[in-house]
Amino acid sequence: MTTGILIAGFGGQGILFAGKFLANMGMLEGRHLSWLPSYGPEMRGGTANCSVVLSDDPIGSPIVNHPDVLVAMNLPSLDKYEDEVVSGGTIFVDSSLIGRKVKRTDVRVIYIPATQLAHENGIATLANMIIVGKMMKECDFLPYDGIEQAVRTVVSAKHADLFDVNMKAIGIGYQYQ
Amino acid sequence: MGNKVLMKGNEAIAEAAIRSGCRHYLGYPITPQTELAAYMAKRMPKIGGVFLQAESEIAAINMVYGVAATGRRVMTSSSSPGISLKQEGISYIAGSDLPCLIVNVQRGGPGLGGIQPSQSDYFQATKGGGHGDYHLIVVAPSSVQEMAQLTGLAFDLAEKYRMPAMLLADGTVGQMMEPVELPEEKDVEFTEKDWAVTGTKMQRPHHIVNSLYLVPDELERKNFERFERYRRIQETEARYESFLMDDAEICVVAFGIAARVSKNAVLAARAEGLKVGMIRPITLWPFPSQALKEAADRVKGFVSVELSMGQMIDDIKLAISCRKPVELVNRAGGMIMSPDEVLAGIRKMNGGDNQ
Amino acid sequence: MIVFEKPKSLTDAELHYCPGCTHGIIHRLVAEAIDTLGIEGRTIGIAPVGCAVMAYNYFACDMVEAAHGRAPAVATGIKRSLPENIVFTYQGDGDLASIGMAETVHAATRNENITVIFVNNAIYGMTGGQMAPTSLPGQITQTSPYGRDVKTAGYPVKVAELLSALDGPEFIARVAVNNVKNVKNAKKIIQKAFENQIEGKGFSLVEVISACPTNWGMTPQNALKWIDEKMIPYYPLGIFKDKSEGKEAGER
Fold it and tell me: Cβ contacts of residue A112 below 8 Å, gap of 6+?
């Protein structure tokens, strides 16, 4: 099985970081994976996106043109990528930043007010990981086991103090109904 | 995959270079290869190596020339506009028969161009690039694993044949992360080269590292000798990956990120019942001409997939002596084709029977 | 008793320089310094592009021929690779002060532990007498046939003064080789520029005012006189910076 995930939003929302977490989950699972960021000035305040492919087989293109899973963290990203999602795919929408509903009827849509939840819980910068938590809950290709180790790897030794807040964010997302 | 680590392509080059015994990195910042320099800046001082941010690409490549003259493993890295600036120095290094590694993480051009991935420096890399008759060994990784693997190979080949090698990557392979199994740390034990400048110690005649030959027949002889060496390399060092070619009627040719995209397209075409395979050049110089020549006996046509206006396609046509049609699927300026676009090219070639 | 002999650090190759050219004297002074300091076996020289391009045939130590203006970058690579060796560049004014200005300034500001011998004869010699960055105002050359007009061609570059304004370099001096007194002083200064490197002090540059009778269109004697009358007034001799002596032109 091959799953193409596209995470998109504004620079600064932790798009690449969320992708790195998913990539590290794939590493722990011993799966084939690739992580590809958009790069350049757009990382500093413009739009940013990140392609993650998780697969049981060697990966061809690391570019996710037609995502199985789209995470839209702002309206331009939903507008741009909604039509690209494969039929039967899943779209995660940060409903605190995106006012409209998904038009497609052949995909599964999960709305979560991630940015609002992040503010309410005093972890304003971690809406990305709240959505990741929700992905853990909703997507069967991401097992919850090993999550601590993946978080530890992505936050790196230098930012070890951020481990707890990231775990908290994932927990909030995981439990959100 | 116990020994694998998750790394960016640019970082994998840096770590692989260190593990293969490179202790000298001299460069100048440019997107999209900066992670490589940053990695070297962090690591080199801790392992007794040299990291130096030069005042320009021109200075950096001439520092590389200096280190190479002492017989030590040395590298630089840059991206397209910066590689253009290095061409003079590369020509001198080739003309002085010195080994070194030059990494080009390509971006769109010409001019200042853009910063998104490209393969439009193919001609520059494979035909020489600077002034005079010369070649570089050119390797073209298409995964983070190959970024690491081919770094070591490029160093080894450069030293074996005493000529500069180029690792020709693109912004995508440089920026992406994949699991990579890094090469074993190589013993950096150093043997004196019998041509290097290290001081005579008053025990031998002085060595001269030089590319100036004012007597024309002497210079001609140097060129003949060098091209005899190139001929041996073309015979023995061409590397490529053959994918589903056994029964293929159409042969896709692509390298780097274009080959990764093409692989998806080849599989999709197979699912449609089309007999398609791919030859992926791993060395661009020497070009795997023999493999393509043999394929031309069996397939009805080729599809060249490139992030340029069509450069490698010339080498394909030369390799097969234009015996079969070659279709071009290309994007330029930092755009990357989708597997669907490659598939369309394959279908077009398949339907081209009666043309 | 031998009273005069060729320095050991020069090969037996016959110099190709024109009659009256002072490159030969400067080569000799460099070789004498290397001999005196006993460093020939660990010295590596970098030849420029210009009249001294074939210096690699004349110096008996290991030699590298650099691209035009890039000698300080090549020297940097060699010195970083072999810090125990003694590395010097030998460059002319077009090479060092025009096309290679960036490499010169940055090697100086990094205080790269190398020795630079900068031969300033105010003209491009090898290509046949074009205007150099150091050609004097009013000087007639092939490419300034009406005399260097500072309004269009700008002013000469005073390399020693320019570099001594930097915090980096250890030692910057200007000497001349147009008479016995000046040659004796040049010998002392060039030797010091090598000693500095041996002692690990850093970037040492000696600008040597040199004669080019062929391209100046003068007899050798008149060329030496022209140095006194025209060159030295514009390019005063002396030590411009010597950190270990507390002489800091660039001190703030």
Answer: A92, A93, A94, A95, A130, A131, A134, A173, A176
Instruction: Give, in degrees to the nearest 5, the angle at Cα C154 between C152 and C160.
Output: 170
CATH code where residue C106 lies: 3.40.50.970
Q: Domain B241-354: give its CATH code.
A: 3.40.50.920
Amino acid A45: pLDDT: 58
Contact call for B199 and C44, based on CB within 8 A: yes
- Predicted confidence at residue B188, as pLDDT, reads 61
CATH number of B5-198+225-235: 3.40.50.970
Residue in chain B lying closest to A41 (CA) = B115
Report chain B residues whose CB lies below 8 A from the CB of A23.
6, 177
Tokens found for residue C145: 């046939």
Cβ–Cβ contact C61 with B under 8 A: yes
Of B54, B88, B209, the CB nearest to C65: B209
Whole-number pLDDT of residue B159: 96
pLDDT of amino acid A44 = 54
Report the pLDDT value the prediction gives residue A42, as an integer from 0 to 100.
52
What does A91-156 look like in DSSP terms, one character per residue? EEEETTT--SPP--SSSEEEEE-HHHHHHHTT-GGGHHHHHHHHHHHH-TTS-STTHHHHHHHHHT
Q: Do chains C and A touch (3 or more CB pairs under 8 A)?
A: no
Listed by start position, the domains of chain B span 5-198+225-235, 241-354
Euclidean distance between CA atoms C98 and B104, whole angstroms: 29
User: Could you tell me if the ipTM is greater than 0.90?
Assistant: yes
Please answer whether residues C163 and C250 qualify as being in contact, where contact means their C-beta atoms are separated by less than 8 angstroms.
Answer: no
Residue among C62, C65, C80 minimizing CB distance to B200: C62
Q: Is the pLDDT of residue B71 over 90?
A: yes
Asked if C63 reaches chain B (Cβ–Cβ under 8 Å), the answer is yes
Structural contact between residues B243 and B209, judged by C-beta atoms closer than 8 angstroms: no
Q: pLDDT tens digits for C64-87?
A: 999 999 999 999 999 999 999 999
Taking the CA of residue C195 and the nearest CA in chain B, the distance in Å comes to 17
Q: Is the pLDDT of residue A138 over 60?
A: yes
Residue C12 lies in a domain: no
pLDDT in tens, B141-165: 999 999 999 999 999 999 999 999 9
Domain of C108, in residue numbers: 23-244
Question: Tens digits of per-residue pLDDT, A97-124?
Answer: 999 999 999 999 999 999 999 999 999 9
Q: What pLDDT is attached to residue C252?
A: 34
